[in-house]
Amino acid sequence: MNINMTLECDTCGEPTNCRIGMSNREEQRLRFCCPDCSAPIDLVFGVKKGGGITGAHRIDGRQPFDAETNFVDLHLDFPVSFGPYVMGNTPYMAAAQRIGFEEMQLHSARLNTLNAEHELFPKFKTLLKLYAGGKVTPFKMNAAKTFGIITKSDLPQDINATLYSVVSNVMRPFAMPHANESVVKLFVNMMRGVWVKDAVSTEAFMREIIDSGFLKKLQLDCLEIYHRILAAELPLRPALFLDFDDMYHSEPIPMRVSVDEFETYKDLYKDICEIVARQLNLVAGLNNLQKRNDHNAFKPEIGLSRAGNNRTPKNLAAFADVNFGDKLKFIDNSWYEFDNRAADNQMRNAIAHYKTDYDEISQKITYFPRKEGMMEGKSEETSFLDFIRRILIAYREMHSLHQLIKCLFFHEYIMPKPT
Ligand SMILES: [Zn+2]
User: 9 CA to middle of ligand 1, Å?
Assistant: First the structure.
């Protein structure tokens, strides 16, 4: 269903024609910024209290829409065009034309899961808190009561089994189908491989990451991200759509996200990248173990520059201090295929240290990857949609490597110690 309405901006008095494609989500919160003065205009449907339109009010506009008046298409579930009004080319039709009706159904199935389960999200957040706080009894009780997962015993491997079942179940709409099964297989094989080859060296690696608290801290930091991804569900919907949109990957045209809050999600991207950077320590340690039977031994001279400086990390602790953007260079012939798109170091740096400018009307983000003295340096540009897509990709990489953390704990709990 689509609703056509004309809204007059409360800030500047200019009218905008809106075509709103309704999602199946019960509560719908849409936002765009006035094409004339960039003041935010919010539309909220399906709530008992506080619904309606703020920042503008409805007026009688000309029907059908004319070409002279500002126009916006809005839909929660897909990216929509910034183009002019075309009668009949509704957001749904335009989206279906991009990916085909079959893929549309796959996309809808994921969104329907989110629509059906969003009431569980606060309970999920509480459950992760109980786990993080070591509150075993209420954790087990809530996992059973709310998520239907029974914990076999109080042994740490059984508690973790429950935790990871709930996580993968709740987070499944954000995953690519079957993505988890294949990485878990890879991680289990890797752990078995290094252990069979050299149990003593493997144990030395385990002691370093566990006795220092590194692995536990990393696990708890990963768990903190999930509820933030769920809270970003609305802007992530159009990013999920792009999983099926090959046209976008070959030619990323600007498209609108109908929820517009760049500032709200800046830190989420930065925090996920920061976790992924630490997860790479595990990938590097295992790579060193596999190739040189010593988690601290990087390939000699892998960091040798043309000028003759050797920046090869002396050990895993030194590797931990390497810049995120440089880390992959020191992992020779990596056993783990890292999605490079997950780590846009320039964007992360710009968000973390420098400046980003956001144009609410065009949803264009301008960022400055390098600071050059007092000057801001050359700028790069991306769209809010692309930025949200990067959050999704970085999140998936984090989630994938979180499965490695799970496997490492499992190894610690069940494997006999070498004598
Ligand atoms: Zn305005």
Answer: 5
CA–CA dist 98, 92 (Å, integer): 10
Cβ neighbours for 147, distance < 8 A, ≥ 6 positions apart: 120, 124, 127, 165, 166, 169, 170
Separation between Cα atoms, residue 86 and residue 318, nearest integer Å: 58
Rounded to the nearest angstrom, the distance between the alpha carbon of 19 and the centre of ligand 1 is 17
H helix or E strand, kind and range, residue 74? strand 70-75
- Using DSSP, state whether 53 is helix, strand or coil: strand
Q: What are the structural domain ranges in the chain?
A: 2-76, 117-414
Closest CA to 15 of 65, 75, 86, 83: 65
User: How far, in Å, is the centroid of ligand 1 from the Cα of 71?
Assistant: 13
In percent, the amount of the chain with pLDDT more than 70 equals 99
What residue ranges of the chain have pLDDT lower than 50? Answer: none
Instruction: State in Å: Cα 327 to ligand 1 middle.
Output: 46
343-353 CB burial, b ≥16 within 10 A, e <16: bbbebbbbbbe
pLDDT of residue 377: 72
SS3 for 176? coil
Give the Å distance between the CA of 108 and the centre of ligand 1.
33
234-286 confidence digits (pLDDT tens): 999 999 999 999 999 888 888 999 887 888 898 999 999 999 999 999 999 99
Largest Cα span, the chain: 83
CA 11 to ligand 1 center in whole angstroms: 5
Query: Each residue of 178-216: pLDDT tens digit?
Result: 777 889 999 999 999 999 999 999 999 999 999 999 999
> Distance between CA 347 and CA 341 in Å, rounded?
11
Give the sheet arrangement for strand 356-359, strand by strand.
356-359, 364-367, 380-383
